[in-house]
Amino acid sequence: MNGLPNEVPRPPGELEELKRLWNPPRGLRFFTVINNNYIGVVYVGAAFLFFVLAGILALMMRTQLAVPDNDLIGPELYNQLFTMHGTIMMFLFAVPAMEAMGILLLPNMLGARDMPFPRLSAYAFWAYFVGGLVFFCSLFLGLAPDGGWFMYPPLTTETYSPGINQDMWLLGIGFIEISAIAGAIEIIVGILRTRAPGMTLARMPVFAWAMLIFALMVVFAFPAVILATLLLELERAFGWPFFSAELGGDPLLWQHLFWFFGHPEVYIIFLPAAGMVSMIVPAMAQTPLVGQRLVILALIAVGFLSFGLWVHHMFATGIPMVSLSFFQAASMAVAIPSGIQVFAWIATFAKGKVQLKTPALFILGMLFIFVLGGLTGVMVAVVPFDWQVHDTYFIVAHLHYVLVGGMVFPLFAGFYYWMPYTSRHALSERVGRWVFWLVFVGFNVSFFPMHVTGIVGMPRRVYTYPAEMGWGVLNMVSTVGAFMIALGVLLFIVDVARRFRMSAEDNAGNVWNAGTLEWLPNGNYSNRSIPAVDSPYPLWDQPRLAEQVEAGAWYLPRSGTGTRDTVVTSPVDARPQFVLRLPMPGWAPLVGAWFTAAFFFALTFKQVALAAVFAVIGIGALVHWAWHLDPPPEQAAIDIGGGIRLPDYMSGPASQSWWCMVVLMLVSGSFYGCLLFSYLYLWLVSPQAWPHAMPSFAFPAVSILLYVLSAAMLAWTNLRMRSQGRCTGLVLALALLVAGLAVDFAAFADVSPSASAYGAAVYAILCVGGFFVFVTAFLALFALARQRAGLLDSTRRVVFDNARLFFSYTLAQSAAGLAMVHLFPRVAA
Amino acid sequence: MATILRIASGVIVWALHFGLLYGFTALACARGFQHLVPAAVGAATALAALAAVAIVVRNLSSEFNRWLAAAIALAALVAILWEGVTVFMVPMCE
After folding, report:
1. pLDDT on residue B90
2. How many CB pairs under 8 A join A and B?
3. Could you tell me if A290 and A344 are in contact, meaning their C-beta atoms sit under 8 angstroms apart?
4. Which listed residue, of A300, A558, A616, A739, carries a Cα 20 to 30 Å from A745's Cα?
5. Where do the domains of chain B lie?
6. How far B24 CA lies from chain A's nearest CA (Å)?
């Protein structure tokens, strides 16, 4: 093994130390596990559990609809069933399943030991799992939401939906989306900063590309739905009329915000699935993916075009034809990059020698179903056709063909394909074929007739129908198909119970002769040594790579820092930059997640005092967690092999923490952008709600002066931090920021947020600004506390850098908000 | 970061153009100056298309990152023209 970075055989004790460090905790402490091999598997398992639960709800609905005039399930329960089915499938199954697959696969696929923020993965999992279970259990108490998975007002406002059913959706789903964003931040930083040396963007696996685009889409799309849920909850709880037309609000604002999230959501689900297919097809065909560059381009094109499609869910709302035409054009355009991927997969199958194993069967099934769904998608992108079939079973058929074809079939392909990576045994090939045919035939038997049911006029979301409508036979066929799918899924579960035995150390291995890094010999520590790669399929192009990696001949074949660690590389060229110390298991993420969930659910039940207690415990756990991050620099040069010596600490743009903060600012910017859009939208539709007399110009003049002084103070503090390692100036910068906010509120003291949409929009901007100031204050005080404890200086300054970045963002955002509430109405008038 | 921004530049041009198209036509239809829409959309589309072409030309290369920047800008150019042209084909504000 000459010419490799490290001499082999390696000194005794190295491997044992790696194993000891990466062993999962035992006993009750197993719940504190954070390693991606474990969190990834339980995350996938939890998502699958929600798939099964939502599937059971679907079976109940199909049983109810099997015959006309059925009174098995009443309308109230039926409304809850279809709302929960859609909500769980979209929010608790599809997106989390994709994030889970990312967390499970990405570190090994990229050549990292773990995700860069493993505790954040654990937090995201526990928040989602606990929140999701409580949300599901609301069905048993009759408290489940019943306004449809997209929760349109005015039906879901307090007037028409009293009680807490809709609050359960608004607070529960809003909270779970925060968990999804946490996962997305982790994935973006992981993909950009922890790739193996030499794994440039061109050599990055297509699945990693897909997950990167997926996570960026989550960052830009999910804040819209979080804002929408916040605004609707404010209207329900305090009467701020964002959606009440009589006070200048507009129900269509909800639809804009929801679908700005909701349509990209479809592609958020599809892209990772497409990424999986682009990994599985080459392995099944034993040849590289045809047109890999074009496939990457197609993923990106789908990603950005999908943000121009949201109004195609609103074709029937009376929006001007010229506006509809942009969205119609974009809806048609997105079919082209989707088609490129389909052709690339077919061409790869055609070029190679296909092993027609279960993963390949599911991909062929996916191609059939997804293409049909895509074709009906082009049909409903045509506005006049959409008007004909709007809210009928044709749409139910279309969306299931797209989602099941585009996501569920690839996911099952992924389960079969990657099972040997995470289990001692692959799943049974014989049972797998039964599963495939039952699910494939069952799906088409169930959903194909729905195209016809819809065209002959059956509306969606009706709990029954009269026999004389003639829809009975079609519905009975659909119900039979649904039970066939259920049988297939049941068989899959039995097979998993028989064959799945979780093991990173002793997995079944590379049974497909695949070419990417996740198929290297693994342990809980991922790979024994981190290879340098020079192609997208290193295992095919470097035939002895597995043996060399396992022997420890590549980079960092040991713990470089005496704790868990991995190599951080540059985002584009993947050049090694520093050794990142990773945290060990701890209770803080678990406690933080449980009590964050408890806080939101206590609020749902309007138990404010209890919610405050939970918030204190949750925040306490998060502070405890954060306090133990950012260990001090200890070694200036860790030898990872090949003459490369790396530091164990980095601040500024090179640090993983800086990237995390930048992505968080993108999330915040997207959220605030949607809020400003809401203000402008309400002004556009209800100019009569806007006052003629504005607050004195002295208010914004004083505010902006305070913000400028605060920014200057922050800049001065940064200089002082560099030279003397002191950040005490944050106190004054913070005081100026808070004073600016106080002046902002004082300017609108005479305006009531519940009197008109204008007041509601202004106070929403002010209150969101207040929340950001609160978080900024929290970060600044945290930095000051660490300085006082001697944990912050001019070198060990990541905590200060984070606070400064967020502080700068808050100042910019405050200025933008000021311009919107003071300047814009004057200019517009 | 510069490379990442370069790769994303086509997307940014498309997003600005699409946002402007939608925002301006909504405003024009709501406030009654729809007669300005064709000229405004035409100008915005021409400008955005020029920007996309400039990105393509500046990044013509087989090196992956440059190729990707150019290819994304090309995709954005097609989308910009395809979406922009619709304004001349349908009735305004009906």
Report:
1. 77
2. 98
3. yes
4. A616
5. 2-88
6. 10
Query: Which amino acid, A219?
Result: V
DSSP string, A192-253: HHSPPTT--GGGS-HHHHHHHHHHHHHHHHHHHHHHHHHHHHHHHHH---SS-GGGT--HHH
Report the residue of chain B nearest A330, measured CA to CA: B83
Quick check: ipTM above 0.85?
A: yes
Query: What is the least distance, in Å, from the CA of A684 to any CA of chain B?
Result: 7
| A493-531 residue pLDDT tens | 999 999 999 887 888 889 999 999 999 998 999 999 999
Determine the Cα–Cα distance for residues A320 and A323; give it in Å rounded to an integer. 5
Cα A244 from chain centre: 31
Chain B contact probe: residue of A195, A250, A322 with most B CBs at under 10 A: A322
Contacts of A226 (CB under 8 A, 6+ apart): A174, A177, A178, A671
Nearest CA in chain A to B32: A684
Q: Would you state the structure tokens that stand for residue A182, as one six-digit string?
A: 């946490």
The first and second tokens of residue A103, run together, are 């967390």
Q: Cβ of A323 and B26 within 8 Å?
A: yes
Would you say the C-alpha torsion A733, A738, A739, A744 has a positive or negative sign?
A: positive
**Measured between CA atoms, how close is B53 to chain A, in angstroms?**
17
Torsion of CA A44, A486, A135, A390, to 10 degrees: 110
Q: pLDDT tens, A353-400?
A: 888 999 999 999 999 999 999 899 889 888 889 899 999 999 999 999
Q: Which two tokens stand for residue A809?
A: 């963002």
3-state secondary structure of B80: helix
Report the gap between the CA of A701 and the closest CA in chain B (Å): 29
* Cβ neighbours around A826 below 10 Å, total: 10
Q: Do B86 and A329 touch (CB under 8 A)?
A: yes
Per-residue DSSP letter, A408: I
Token output for A791:
């944990």
CB neighbourhood size of A30 (10 A): 11
